[in-house]
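Many introductory courses stop at the sequence. We go one step further.
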Amino acid sequence: MLAGLVTLIFLLLGLYPWLSYQQIPRDLVSQPIKPCGTSPSEARRLGCQFDPMEYSWLPPPCYDAELVEDYLRLLERKTLNFYAKPDNDSVANIVPLAEILAGEHHTVYMTWDQHQEHCAYMFRKLHGALDAGGPVDGYIWAYKHTQHCLVILFDRSSDLVGLD
């Protein structure tokens, strides 16, 4: 009797992961769209918002305002900055946060620590979108970016040349 009960418990525990598994609906991931246009002015006109951590314009369903606010508080607390030129973290090279949030700069640079924060943010955003059943933008969905972030988070000695 006890052996049968123990077997049943182990069977149920073994089935739990299988029973709780959820497949991502194909229509959630197979609709490549570019709803924010090709310029900041077009993105604004289309109602898109700029995500400074992704450094891209996103349609409202893909924009996580709470996560962006968390990141902005982190920027202030850690005094993290964006820079106009690579390998030049002088004060004169800092791009003001107001300019970053306007989404007008095509390219900016960040420190290694900030790059790690970006990767943690992206993993958090991907997981949150999947957990909520919401849309996932192409930037965080790209497996190449996940591979890149794993290098950033766990292999500081790696050469970053050629990594996007």
